[in-house]
Amino acid sequence: MDITFLLNGESVELRGVSPTVTLLDWLRETRGLTGTKEGCNEGDCGACTVMVTDESGARPLNACILFLPQLHGKAIRTVEGIAGPDGSLHPVQQAMIEHHGSQCGFCTPGFIVSMACAHLNGDTNHDDALAGNLCRCTGYAPIIRAAEAAEKAPVPFWMNDVPPAAEGATAPTDAASPDVHAPETSDALAELYARHPNATLIAGATDVGLWVTKQMRDLPEVIFLNRCRDLQSVEVSDTTIRIGAGVTMDSVLTLMREHHPSFAEMVRRYGSAQVRAAATIGGNIANGSPIGDNPPALVALGATLHLRFRETHREMPLEDFYIDYGKQDRHPGEFVEAVSFPRQPNRLRVYKLSKRFDQDISAVCGAFNIIVDDGVVSSARVAFGGMAGIPKRAIHVEQALIGQRWTDEALIAAWEAWHKDFTPMSDMRASADYRLTTARNMLSRYLLEDLGADVSVLEVTP
Amino acid sequence: MSIAKPLPHDAAKLHVTGAARYLDDIALPANTLHLAFGLASIAAGRVTSMALDAARAAPGVVAVMTAADLPTDCDCSPSAHDEPLLSDGTVHYLGQPLFLVAAETHLQARRAVRLAQVQYDKAEPILTIEEALAANARFEDGPIVWERGAAEAAIASAARQISGQIEMGAQEHFYLEGQSALALPQEGGDMVVHASTQHPTEIQHKVAHALGIPMHGVRVETRRMGGGFGGKESQGNALAIACAVVASTTRRPAKMRYDRDDDFLITGKRHDFRIDYHVGFDPAGRIAGITFRHYTRCGWAQDLSLPVADRAMLHADNAYYLPAVRIESHRLRTNTQSATAFRGFGGPQGMLGIERVMDHIAYDLGYDPLQVRRANYYGATGRGGLSAPRLPEASPSEGISEPEKRQTTPFGQPVEDFILHEMTDRLAETAAYEQRRAAVAAWNAANPVLKRGLALTPVKFGISFTLTHLNQAGALVHVYQDGSVHMNHGGTEMGQGLFQKVAQVAASRFGVPLEAVKITATDTAKVPNTSATAASSGSDLNGMAVREACDTIRARMADHLALLYQSTPDAVTFGDGQVIIGDETLSFARAAQLCYEGRVSLSSTGFYKTPKVEWDRIKGQGRPFFYFAYGAACSEVVIDTMTGEYRILRADILHDCGASLNPALDLGQIEGGYVQGAGWLTTEELVWDEAGHLRTHAPSTYKIPACADRPDIFNVALWDGENREETIYRSKAVGEPPFMHGISVLMALSDAVAASGDGYPSLDAPATPERVLKAIRSLRNEL
User: Fold this and answer.
1) Closest partner residue to B176 among A45, A89, A462, by Cβ?
2) Are the CB atoms for B33 and B252 separated by under 8 Å?
3) CB-based contact (8 Å) between B642 and chain A?
4) Which residues, listed in sequence order, are joined to residue A377 by a DSSP beta bridge?
5) Cβ separation B640–A457 shorter than 8 A
6) Do A136 and B665 touch (CB under 8 A)?
7) What does residue A45 show for φ and ψ, rounded to 5 degrees?
8) Domains of chain A (ranges plus CATH)?
């Protein structure tokens, strides 16, 4: 595969690129740019953070789980490109020195890139911008002081990358590597995937990346989805919100802030800025993980899944897609095109429970959408992640709630139904007992929140 | 004078530009081999067969070695010669290296490892404390016991008694830079090794042993580590030995770095502990007698477990006088990773035991825990900070007529500078402890779901290696004829800022700007026989050794310049980049030039050994520590009683660094130590399954604190005293002591849980949301 991109302001053309070489390995081993570090090789520590700019702007990404073909037509800036061409330091670099933000220094390049990217975008929510960068030495306080100190400094001129795509890049050529594809439209994708149903679809590679870096799997045939622009649109009509499968989670976050803030808060926590910028909602749905956080929230919203095989479009309630652990109702060559859900009054609450608030996989993720009319539950949609082998709707709980007065009576009425809906397992994230107990308690939390009680430790100020 | 200035880390600019070079960044010779270990997939048993042909045939593979292919036994142990590089057929833990692959690239080596087919004859692994006790699987013959007085009798005759138990989990170091080593074969069979290690001399020693050559044939160099925290004191031995053996066999350079998951699975972690306690106390909460039983899982090999368990015993008192005490320590052998050094080295575990006891006594009596802590403090010594308020008899417990009697540790060392009364008073005032105690109670009364908790805990941490002979250091300093200074010492840089502190010492001795001093990589050929950079000792030991070297050169220069300018050596002064000899003023560079021309040696070694320390670990008596470092922390948390989730709202810390060599670097150690300590006791949970498989082996499943987990309000101040002992510029060690401020977080969580029900919470660590909820439900009789 032949690709072109901009690296620290210089044009780079690569021929015959293997589709599963990561940007990190290429930078360090081929290009000799060793400032970008490998900390975990799975997208959880941020030591390999690079800034990638395309027509939608600049965002931080984890280079360790980013395949080179995903970068075609984009502009990349590594830590070596954060200081100016004459060596003058970027304001965040200067501030990090002055505020003693580095100790061992190994995480520092990743922090610098995340900070410079947030600085460029005018993002001053530092805790959020840096949630995906782990530091073991400083306790973070001096890093935040540095980020705050640099807020007002102007963006250095060299930071405004213009990606080559804006100057008319074409698709990466694949003549020499027939098993690698990067279609430009969903029509082309539909045709390709029908012909190559065993190919691995790669959207953001936040999961597939680990198949390569951790499981050392060979991917004989791959189809990169990131050039299918028509999969990346969000349509909001009077009645429906439809999100294309290729929409990244940072776009979902922005969208949901307006419609369902609790959904947005879950998205904010479920992945760091680096992960949200790469991961797609379609990937999270299609992956079928029992601990994915989007499916329960979407199921609670009454979402419909849109699948496509060639010209055949199929729709189903999202919950029906999940048949069993690792098994989805998807035919060979069929792919997730979009997910949609009805516009509705915002009654959705998503409660994500994990050991750490930020960038942690849920032990339990509960989504509740309960409508109350005249003090009585008129409709209830409740779904969970982490409680079964699949993202699962709590049908018995829902039925028990409907018709109940929206008080403790409803909780009592639903008490036994939880056992009918769920028999969770114990693992390193939580015990079965904890899962079931907290799932129940989440319903209490929903009620208490309705009654105006303070129920979130995240909203308590000292 | 560069001392006491808040200068940035010496490599700060290199860090922020990505130019700081770590081991994995070193440009390699073209023919370098890359290594990977094949790991055991069972926790105990025998290997019955290893089919390695597919691995040998894999692309890029140059060699596959098993224990039978090694030239010697290639032992990796820092203590007991019980860690073969590759399994001899017996499997001791899941993750133990069985074979190694050398390939042309790192990825090829990792891929080839997966092609091996290993068959086992499985045995039942010993994984838990209970299983180890049942099997009497332990290091040393039986438990170690140290005692003073008749503890059980004192407990029995005390007004009140309680007993309890606390479990505290292990902790993964999670240095951001994984373990790595590079061996470059030299002429005549010599070997140069680059290692990411806190202990270059140990690497040199172990590599020389593995190669069967004298130590002079091996040179080890370490410029910096991307974090160590104790995890690179002994855990890098295996990689360095593997690289050296492959390099020696193939005559090609060899490099090895662990993938993160391998790093978790192979290397040791902090020792987990269970501590049982039985205590008797008077109505004021003052302890009359106490017994502790320490149980710790040491893993499969001895490594540093004995001194770690010793140090836990040595901190069983923390800041409290224990009139009658018995400490029994069980060092258990389990089929898990060999637990190793980690910041605090057992001290945090021992300390957490007594802090739990303080909390429990307070609950039993219905007192504020701080009142009970103060009542049990060692006697005040009246050596407060320079600007400490001279409180009338700070707050020694009432009725103590002879404070000197409350001044000796269980192991017989007098506590000569107990400043915690004054420090606690100051912190309680600046943190508004009393007002917030009332505010927390009021808030809790008004909030049914969320509860706050508050705690203030002290730290008294002993400084020195308990293995007395390790308390030595060497340095090598050159002054060049242009006045520039080359500085080298045995300490290693892992982020703590040691190199900068020691450079400040050198610059100060010569009176030159810091830029005149070149910091250089630790190198066993420059300074031999060094101790690990550990036990917080780095700047104490190496600062003094460098001072000694500088002063030797300075004295030679003064002698010569005095002769030259017909003055006396004591009239020669060094400062502001100049040397003043009577009426004559020279630049330091000119002075160096003159000395060179006068044929004066401008190079010197320096050597230091810590005075006063002596220790009998069998009896548990002596003076293991040169001095103590002190501190206190106050944490406030909020918990959710429906899920167990929590956050740290505020932390106030007052810490004693003596006369700080560099307040900025010291503050960094304190802030970072607190968050790392809080992580140990909260979200950092290592989970082994029933087969002995560590299920949390990457940052996806093992959660160290992230940015937003630090306290919303985070006030850190340095105590403004100086060390009563003659340390380098009267400073105090700071690497480990602040880690234990994290204990205040667990105690604050316990306080919040106590507000959620009836009874004493007995909250174990790590206090994950699940454990917090369990403690709440237990108090509410919901379990």
Assistant:
1) A45
2) yes
3) yes
4) A372
5) yes
6) no
7) -115, -20
8) 3-80+163-224 (3.10.20.30), 89-155 (1.10.150.120), 234-342 (3.30.465.10), 349-450 (3.30.390.50)
* CB proximity B699 to A under 8 Å: yes
User: What is the mean predicted confidence (pLDDT) over B303-321?
Assistant: 98
Q: What is the per-residue pLDDT for B165?
A: 98
Query: CB distance from B5 to chain A under 8 Å?
Result: no
Q: What is the mean pLDDT of residues B407-417?
A: 95
**Alpha helices, DSSP H only, in B175-259?**
200-211, 237-250
Q: Which residue among B9, B447, B689 places its CB closest to the CB of A103?
A: B9
Among B105, B173, B176, which would you mutate to test the A interface (most chain A Cβ atoms within 10 Å of its Cβ)?
A: B176
Q: Which amino acid is at A167?
A: E
**Which residues in chain A have their CB less than 8 angstroms from residue B448's CB?**
448, 453
- Pairwise CB contact (< 8 Å): B770 & A460: no
End-to-end C-alpha distance for chain A, whole angstroms: 55
Tens digit of each residue's pLDDT (9 = 90 or more) over A104-157: 999 999 999 999 999 999 999 999 999 999 999 999 999 999 999 999 999 999
Please name the amino acid found at residue A363: A
Q: Which of B45, B62, B178 is nearest to B122 (CA)?
A: B45
Q: Do A138 and B672 touch (CB under 8 A)?
A: yes
- Which active-site residues of B does the annotation give? 736
By Cβ distance, the residue of B24, B495, B685 closest to A103 is B495
What DSSP letter does each residue of B115-181 carry, written as one string?
A: T-EEEEEE-----SHHHHHHTT-BSSSS-EEEEES-HHHHHHTSSEEEEEEEEE-------SSPPEE
Closest to B696 measured CA to CA, from A376, A146, A355, A5: A355
**Three-state SS string across chain A, please?**
CEEEEEECCEEEEECCCCCCCEHHHHHHHHCCCCCCCCCCCCCCCCCCEEEEEECCEEEEEEHHHCEHHHHCCCEEECHHHCCCCCCCCCHHHHHHHHCCCCCCCCCHHHHHHHHHHHHHCCCCCHHHHCCCCCCCCCCCHHHHHHHHHHCCCCCCHHHCCCCHHHHCCCCCECCCCCCEECCCCHHHHHHHHHHCCCCEEECCCCCHHHHHHCCCCCCCCEEECCCCHHHCCEEECCCEEEEECCCEHHHHHHHHHHHCHHHHHHHHHHCCHHHHHHCEHHHHHHHCCCCCCHHHHHHHCCCEEEEEECCEEEEEEHHHHEEECCEECCCCCCEEEEEEEECCCCCEEEEEECCCCCCCCCCEEEEEEEEEECCEEEEEEEEEECCCCCCEECHHHHHHHCCCECCHHHHHHHCCHHHHHCCCCCCCCCCHHHHHHHHHHHHHHHHHHHCCCCCCHHHCCC
Closest approach of B287 to chain A, Cα-based (Å): 34
* Strand, helix or coil for residue B612: coil
Pairs of residues, one from chain A and one from chain B, whose beta carbons lie less than 8 Å apart: 274
Chain B residue numbers touching A34 (CB-CB < 8 A): 18, 21, 24-25
pLDDT at B417: 93
Query: Is 0.90 exceeded by the ipTM?
Result: yes
